[in-house]
């Protein structure tokens, strides 16, 4: 297999890999995906398909005619209805073109009516989604409505009754409420993907005019990556265990040298970064991910911190297993796997040391190994970006 593709890989690299994937027999888990959108999504397919392949999923796609969301969702004979996953990608500008045009005129006598018309259209979408979800056996994923790149009011939009940005927020709350009431309807936060990238890089007005797709190639890559992370866990089990180093991972400093009172963890300075990291790990634990420790350390020194340091968020009873000794990290991971009756292929191993990470990668290539960056302020960001989690 070639090197993994990322959002920074070229469009040509994705196109080449997608041709290879379509031409060769695939041992990955098969998944049929229907995409129903208010804009052209043909160019999204190679990005989403390649990112899913890297997650162990072999995707086949059915594309509904663009701009026919309602026709597809309401048609009992639509091909999309047989898909394992239906991905619905609407835009406010496409669904509510007439109410938005009314709002742009800033006629005080028409603003309330235009907003009501927009909400009626959004209620129509919610009803179509709920009906489709109830009538089909697969999972339906609807994208949030991204904020338009420009609004007629510019900087005044945020405080005006005709605010488009506020209408987008209200629309996305309505989508969330619809998904909350349904069993197999989920949300993919497209708006957050666009915001992360930035409107100037995300939107491509020229391609919107030429091809009917308003998103730039870069935005499509970011969206494909996000959607793959949303879809893959439906058929491929995510990681079950996060195995952690201790020194300069769960806390700053080396406990064997600095002592329990000399390590960095707390609410200020660099210690706050380690506190935030522990909170993020506990959030994963609340979602069902097991936490374990594999550390080269004296066990008594380590548990002095876990049991007695007032700033520690993670305590001894939060750990499903631990190996604190001077053994190789790969040996410790094998021992933890045996204790938990799990395969090491369900492990994510986090360590700040390039040497320890290299040793685990070499001996246990099935393990997802993540070397933490030099700056602990980025630990939470790195943790939340791990696809296996």
Please give a structural write-up:
This protein is 47% helix and 15% strand. With 389 residues, it is of the alpha/beta class. It starts with 10 loop residues before the first helix and ends in a 5-residue tail after the last helix. α2 links the parallel β1 and β2.
Summarize, please.
The protein has 389 residues and is an alpha/beta fold. The protein is 47% helix and 15% strand.
Shape: globular
Query: Mean of residue pLDDT?
Result: 93
| Beta strand % | 5-15%
Radius of gyration: 24 Å
Low-confidence stretches: none
The total beta strand count reads 10
H/E series = HEHEHEHHHEHEHHHHEHHEHEHEHEH
Major pleated sheet? 5 strands, parallel
Q: Topology of this structure?
A:
Blueprint: H1 11-23, E1 29-37, H2 45-54, E2 57-63, H3 69-74, E3 85-89, H4 92-95, H5 97-104, H6 108-135, E4 139-143, H7 164-181, E5 185-188, H8 190-197, H9 199-202, H10 205-211, H11 217-231, E6 241-244, H12 255-258, H13 269-286, E7 290-296, H14 299-308, E8 319-325, H15 329-340, E9 347-351, H16 354-363, E10 368-371, H17 379-384
Parallel strand pairs: 1-2, 1-3, 3-4, 4-5, 6-7, 6-9, 7-8, 9-10
Helix pairs in contact: 1-2, 2-11, 5-6, 6-7, 8-11
Question: What descriptors fit this protein?
Answer:
alpha/beta; five-stranded parallel sheet; 17 helices; 10 strands; 389 residues
């Amino acid at each position: 297999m070639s090197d993994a593709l990322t959002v920074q890989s070229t469009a040509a690299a994705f196109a080449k890999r997608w041709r290879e994937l379509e031409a060769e027999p695939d041992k990955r888990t098969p998944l049929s995906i229907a995409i129903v959108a208010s804009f052209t999504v043909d160019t999204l397919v190679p990005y989403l398909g390649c990112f899913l392949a890297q997650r162990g999923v072999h995707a086949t796609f059915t594309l509904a005619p663009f701009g026919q969301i309602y026709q597809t969702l309401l048609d009992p004979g639509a091909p999309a209805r047989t898909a394992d996953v239906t991905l619905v990608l609407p835009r406010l500008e496409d669904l509510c073109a007439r109410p938005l045009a009314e709002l742009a005129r800033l006629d005080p006598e028409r603003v309330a009516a235009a907003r009501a018309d927009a909400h009626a259209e959004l209620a129509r979408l919610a009803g179509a989604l709920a009906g489709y979800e109830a009538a089909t056996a697969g999972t339906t994923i609807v994208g949030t409505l991204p904020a338009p790149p420009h609004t007629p009011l510019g900087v005044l939009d945020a405080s005006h009754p005709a605010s488009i940005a506020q209408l987008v927020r209200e629309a996305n709350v309505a989508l969330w409420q619809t998904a909350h009431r349904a069993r197999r309807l989920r949300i993919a936060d497209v708006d957050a993907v666009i915001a992360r990238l930035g409107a100037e890089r995300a939107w491509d007005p020229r391609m919107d005019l030429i091809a009917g797709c308003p998103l730039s190639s870069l935005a499509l890559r970011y969206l494909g990556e996000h959607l793959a992370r949303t879809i893959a866990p439906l058929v491929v089990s995510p990681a079950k265990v996060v195995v952690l180093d201790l020194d300069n991972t769960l806390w700053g400093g080396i406990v064997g040298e600095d002592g329990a009172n000399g390590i960095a963890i707390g609410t200020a300075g660099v210690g706050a970064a380690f506190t935030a990291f522990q909170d993020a790990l506990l959030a994963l634990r609340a979602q069902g991910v097991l936490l374990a420790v594999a550390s080269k350390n004296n066990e008594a020194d380590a548990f002095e911190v876990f049991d007695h340091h007032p700033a520690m968020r993670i305590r001894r009873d939060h750990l499903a297993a631990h190996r604190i000794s001077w053994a190789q990290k790969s040996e410790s991971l094998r021992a933890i796997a045996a204790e938990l009756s799990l395969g090491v292929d369900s492990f994510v191993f986090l360590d700040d040391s390039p040497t320890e990470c290299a040793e685990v990668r070499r001996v246990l290539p099935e393990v997802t190994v993540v070397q933490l960056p030099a700056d602990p302020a980025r630990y939470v960001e790195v943790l939340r970006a791990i696809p296996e989690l």
